[in-house]
Amino acid sequence: RFMFFSGFVKLQSGDPTWLNLTALEYHYWTQPLPTWTAWYLHQAAAWFQKLCCLAMLAIELGAPLLVFGPRVCRSIAFALLVGLQVAILATGNYGFFNLLSIVLCILLLDDSQWQVLWPKESRWKLRIGLARVETPTRRVLNTMVAVLLLSLSVPTAWSQWTGESVGRSWREPFSSWRLVNQYGLFRSMTTTRPELRIEVSEDGTNWETIVFHHKPGPLDRPPAFCLPDMPRLDWQMWFDGLSIRNEIRYGTRAGNIILTDLLQAILEGRKPVLELMESTPDFTPRLVRWRLDRYRFSNSEHRAETGDWWVSKTMYESPTIAGDTMQAPAGNGLRSE
User: Fold this and answer.
1) For the chain, what is the largest distance between any 2 Cα atoms, rounded to a whole number of angstroms?
2) What are 169-214's pLDDT values in tens digits?
3) How far apart are CA 222 and CA 46, in angstroms?
4) pTM for the full model?
5) Distances (CA, A) of 250 to 239, 329, 330
């Protein structure tokens, strides 16, 4: 269900980048925390990007159907789904998400396939341990669990498929257990990358840029792997950039942002917060400002000439902010460049 609906929502959304198979032309450089391998794949020809996009949709929509087939079909599904997760893992930083997805796929393998990994002297002990569960008891428990999960998952899946709420009164008591959820990754592809850059100063004349560990910053720094770590601050800054851009452009904000609290912590010199960043000033700043830059991967020619992995252009710049004048970032007073 997780993999199938991840593919289904991409087509259901009507996003043109998925429908015309151009999504991967944006994905590698607009994902929250890109990697250096993503830069190289971004340089690939357009036909290759479309082929990879088509293959991904085929795996997400087709491989889950093989789960209901015989052993050979489940083995093929395992290989396809795990292969997709490895490909995602190799080109982006998603913490432990891909590892957990691979763990789910392990259930597609039979006991006999697992026994190949065990020493011969341990296989008999494994068989005995599995045999200790009486067959009638096992069947009853399996049936009870299957009926419960089906009664919850079918209405949930139908609601996601049709957009209509079905069986909410039955599903509500179980919602806190998170037994069944709606899934759908990358429903709409982000086609731009607004990147927040924070600068601090002691005198209002000389400014120093704060560098984060993993989110894009210096143009010549290659985007790095941080697996299996999930740097929450760097990750959240990606969402903040999108939210602030939308607020500036449309006057509306989707969700909460952490930028205001982060700026306040920097001005106060809170050590636990500053330790989350790669480089911070040696002084306690009196002033802070932020910029919203448009980032994207450089091409091969530009990198060969300059050594830069990124190209950027400043879209907006905030007024200078002092500690006693902190307020939520908004479009008012911003200078567009």
Assistant:
1) 79
2) 777 777 777 777 777 788 889 999 999 999 999 988 899 999 999 9
3) 23
4) 0.83
5) 16, 14, 11
